[in-house]
Amino acid sequence: MTSDAASSHFIESGDEPGLRLHLRLRAPVGKDPLACPPVLLVHGATYASPLYDVAHPGASWLQAIAEAGFAAYALDIRGYGQSRSQVMEDADSPYATGDQALRDIDDAVTWLIARHGAGRVALGGGSWGSITTARYAATIGRGKVERLILYAPIFAERNQGWLTLLADPKEPSRINPGFGACRWVNEETTRLRWDEESPPGVTRRDDAVLTAMFQASLADDPLAKKQTPPAFRAPNGTFLDLWEAFNGRALYDPAAITCPTLLLRGGADMTSTRSDALALFDKLGTDARHYVEIADGGHFVSAENRAPQVFAEANAFLGLNVG
């Protein structure tokens, strides 16, 4: 079975006037999407919903979920992807903070529950999205989340490499005060970050996947092709959360997460480390918790050569055997 091409839905923000949040949907062929249980994926710090729907054979997580019989959605947090904001255009400080992301997730979850007539939704978040979705499930989303997938999870472990990138050059004990509302992301910086996890001579991905992700992200930003080289904007509010997490300060209480939870990471991921993920695993408030590590996978393992393993493990956890 294959799914139809992705469609877009826009919902009104309950928090920021004029903001319309974008959700990408893939649904099974021959089925009414509204009759299919919803799954919502939330992105991380840089790439928005295109990360979960890469236009390359075998690289779309949304496609894999849809083929298993669910209505598979991916949300663009405000300022990301097609959830463009005039407030971000006018801001001079980091935009799309963790608090704002929680409100966007709640808007999307509330809309999905009403649209599908569901009591709860399955929710997944990757990288920074693992922080926002876990925090949501532990706080305002309790009772709305049926199952939770934390992909490339980040919790509360000191990570000096990231702290060096985020710190004030003049005062390393504080976050850089020069971060504006957003930053420009180009293809080469993405390639360098992705490749730094790979030993020399080791290739974990088809380079066409990176190009497809990047081109889709450019298409979502009306100012992208005016840049040299072409680049898209990503909000900087995420840095506030990452600064806390990489200083070892937890942003939520894992014991408050009581729904079945899967932690899923690549074994070579230097941002989501094994020790940090297992510390989170041990603190979760549910006995129905699972930890899966994809050998030799990097931080973007869902878009690497071992992506089919990621999709299979996630689908097995979700129990996507709905025919």
- Radius of gyration, in Å, reads 18 Å
Low-confidence stretches: none
Order of helices and strands: EEEHEHHEHEHEEEHHEHEHEH
**Which CATH C-level class is it?**
Alpha Beta
Instruction: Tell how many strands the DSSP assignment holds.
Output: 12
In CATH terms, what is the architecture? 3-Layer(aba) Sandwich
Residues in helices, as a percent range: 25-40%
Shape: globular
Average pLDDT works out at 94
Please report which band the strand proportion falls in: under 5%, 5-15%, 15-25%, 25-35%, 35-45% or over 45%: 15-25%
Let me know the CATH homologous superfamily: Alpha/Beta hydrolase fold, catalytic domain
Number of domains: 1
CATH topology, what is it called? Rossmann fold
User: How many DSSP helices?
Assistant: 10
Protein name: Alpha/beta fold hydrolase
Domain Serine aminopeptidase S33: 39-303
Keywords: Hydrolase
InterPro entries: AB_hydrolase_fold (IPR029058), Carboxylesterase_BioH (IPR050228), Hydrolase_4 (IPR022742)
